[in-house]
Design brief:
InterPro entries: Glyas_Bleomycin-R_OHBP_Dase, Glyas_Fos-R_dOase_dom, PhnB-like
Largest sheet: 8 strands, mixed
Organism: Streptomyces gobitricini
Order of helices and strands: EHEHEEEHEEE
Pfam families: Glyoxalase
Structural class: alpha+beta
Protein name: VOC family protein
Strand order of the largest sheet: 2-3-4-1-5-8-7-6
Strand content: 35-45%
Length: 139
């Protein structure tokens, strides 16, 4: 996978409905993963969306999820910029992460997550939220 840059929207419990609506509007393939898919025991959280991706035939990519447990949903401030790629681009993505997080606030350090990828979240020095995900090669 080549590196890409796209919006990532946080929803307040209605990510499934929103992402299905965007698929209806834009077309394309929608993939939704719930918190339950990754083993949560919390019945109230299990069916909520941990990560969703809509990829269209026109080359549009939109990602979204229900905000994680313990975090505050802030309408109007619920969009981040996602930088993602695979291990072939890992060095470049780690470099972007270092520069974006320098002088900013890191909320999730760039490290291996339960889904197997390296992932981090930060707000840069200008107040822009960023997510960096380094996927593992499928070799």
């Amino acid at each position: 996978m080549a590196s890409r840059l796209n919006p990532y929207i946080s929803f307040d419990g209605d990510a499934r409905q929103a992402m299905e609506f965007y698929q209806h509007v834009l077309g394309g393939d929608l993939t939704l993963n719930t918190y339950g898919d990754f083993g949560t025991d919390d019945r109230g959280q299990a069916e909520k969306i941990m990560h969703g991706t809509l990829e269209t035939d026109r080359g549009f990519t939109l990602m979204g999820a229900d905000h994680p447990p313990g975090s505050e949903h802030r309408p109007g401030n619920n969009i981040a910029v996602s930088l993602s790629g695979d291990s072939a681009d890992a060095g470049r993505l780690r470099g972007y992460w270092e520069k974006l997080s320098d002088g900013g606030t890191v909320s999730v350090p760039l490290e291996r997550q339960m889904w197997g990828d390296e992932f981090g979240m930060c707000v840069d020095r200008f107040g822009i939220a960023w997510m960096v995900n380094i996927g593992q090669s499928q070799d």
